Sequence to fold (421 residues):
Amino acid sequence: MKMMRAAVGLWVLSAVICVGRGHHHLGHGNDQTVQDTVGDGSANSVSLVNEANKEFSFQLYRKLAADADSQGKNIFFSPASVSVALAALSVGAQGETHRQLFSGLGFNSSLLTQTDVDQVFQTLLQSTNNTSQEDASEGTAVFVDDDFKSKPEFLQTLKQSYFADGFNVDFAKATESADTINKYVEEKTNGKIDKLVKDLDPNTVMYLISYIYYKGKWETPFDPKLTKQDDFNVDENTKVSVDMMNMKDHFHIYHDHDLNTTVLQLPFNSSYSMLLMLPDVMATLENAICPNHVTKWLKAMVIPRRHDVYIPKFSIKTSYNLNDVLAVMGMTDMFGVRANLRGISEEPGLKVSEVVHKATLDVDEAGAEAAAATVIKILLGSSRFPPPVPVLKFNRPFMVIITERNTEKILFLGKIINPTI
Ligand SMILES: *[C@@H]1O[C@H](CO)[C@@H](O)[C@H](O)[C@H]1NC(C)=O
Ligand SMILES: *[C@@H]1O[C@H](CO)[C@@H](O)[C@H](O)[C@H]1NC(C)=O
Ligand SMILES: *[C@@H]1O[C@H](CO)[C@@H](O)[C@H](O)[C@H]1NC(C)=O
Ligand SMILES: *[C@@H]1O[C@H](CO)[C@@H](O)[C@H](O)[C@H]1NC(C)=O
Ligand SMILES: *[C@@H]1O[C@H](CO)[C@@H](O)[C@H](O)[C@H]1NC(C)=O
Fold:
């Protein structure tokens, strides 16, 4: 029986809620200072891991978008949270299993060791909690069966570098241990992700969990009085009715001619922003988008210009089993008999049973108590862009990114095909 009970469940959870309540405050676009996020990890390791994480975001996006299960569905996930979970797992992986995880995450093993990676994640996890105060929290947890002997070094590294909360549970008591895990997750995601675990796999000896929660208020809220029912064109033949929010104001907008895509930056009242990308042809954007685009767009959006912007109000939930997608990205051994997780335990037959990711996104307009501050803006060259006020309407499929403006860390990434499903 003991031999059978040898699977690690890897659950990656994200919850995000964006509430458009806030005060009026512009001028963030000029705030280009790059924060020094170097803690224990050296500057070089931090930038190597940062770059790898950004690349990984879009690689994973493309694999998810191409997956048969994703067709006709919205896509929304937290690449940051998936990276953390896999990096934490790689602490306990050895040999080829470790090599696959490292290379799948985009880490170059001739430039980075596992210890470097651990130190960088320590810095990154801390700075998510620090930079945004109550807005964002990110962390990990490990639930270990009472009878399972895991290596103390593994748990030690998870605690120290990944801030893992550690729990001993009796997985034989299925209901009780499911409750323990569900309660933990519900609390960490402010109730956004509940009833995560229904049927505990009796073979599971460990649950490794990574969660991320983000709640942002728009720097400039939408006026709920202007929200009207409107059509959203899912495709040429399908229209759905949505609550369309509207705001006429100065916005950071960039038209990327290479991708035939218009990008809108909606800043939160923090160092985070939501980028909304409206392409002429979704495939053109999806297939090409990479970290350099995000850098280019943020750089180019210096001068806000007056636009009439329409964005649907929506609330979506997603759930993925990432086993196949990660296998396609080269991380295959961890799921099978070739798995080498001897850094977690010497018990034979230890493997990863499943990697699950859940995310939610809620976007709405303004709260009633939104205050407006008066801002005097001096617009350079505005006379060269005379009225009428151009309209930008997100009334057909678009992509969305939630990012930190200084580090360009990608907290969330997705594609909204139909805001009503
Ligand atoms: C926006 O952020 C500032 C600085 O953190 C804070 O003082 C202010 O209360 C925030 N405004 C809202 C509406 O949350
Ligand atoms: C890893 O880094 C080394 C040294 O800079 C470089 O030669 C090699 O091409 C890199 N490997 C990959 C896969 O990028
Ligand atoms: C971040 O904040 C959450 C919630 O307060 C906490 O549980 C978690 O341990 C923190 N993570 C880090 C890295 O400090
Ligand atoms: C985060 O805040 C803690 C406590 O205030 C501090 O010790 C730590 O250095 C900060 N980390 C980063 C990366 O800013
Ligand atoms: C962008 O649109 C123009 C005009 O419709 C077209 O000629 C061009 O091929 C498009 N570019 C891409 C990358 O799709």
Remarks:
- Confidence is low (pLDDT under 50) at residues 1-5, 16-40, 366-385.
- Residues 65 and 75 are 7 Å apart (CA to CA).
- The radius of gyration is 22 Å.
- Residues 125-126, 129, 137, 139, 163 surround 2-acetamido-2-deoxy-beta-D-glucopyranose (ligand 3) (CB under 6 Å).
